[in-house]
Amino acid sequence: MGLYYCKRCGEVLFSAKDLVGHSNGRDQQSGTCTSLFTEPLDWVDAVGRNQGRIYCQRCTFCVGRFCWSGMPCSCGEWVRPAFQFHSARIEVRGVVKLVPKQH
Ligand SMILES: [Zn+2]
Ligand SMILES: [Zn+2]
User: Fold this and answer.
1) How remote is the CA of residue 18 from the centroid of ligand 2, in Å?
2) What is the pTM of this model?
3) CATH number of 3-93: 3.30.1380, 3.40.50, 2.170.150, 2.40.440?
């Protein structure tokens, strides 16, 4: 099971089981997804707010953003609710590729 870490401090952010797929496999052909989307995460302070940034709990590095009403991925596909992490700001260990599995 892959784990995803803050690139700055190494804090665990989420695991591969939290990932949400969204593009019906199209991202694998075009390779345009620059973000990962997860289920709503307990540690993200997202209660009572429609949208905001997601900060690493340990070092407060901005690793992504969330929006309950949805956000488009870089591939054009909408994800709702969206808990979006920037691939460039997180690190993965334990899996081969930084590509979410389809549901
Ligand atoms: Zn961090
Ligand atoms: Zn995408």
Assistant:
1) 16
2) 0.82
3) 2.170.150
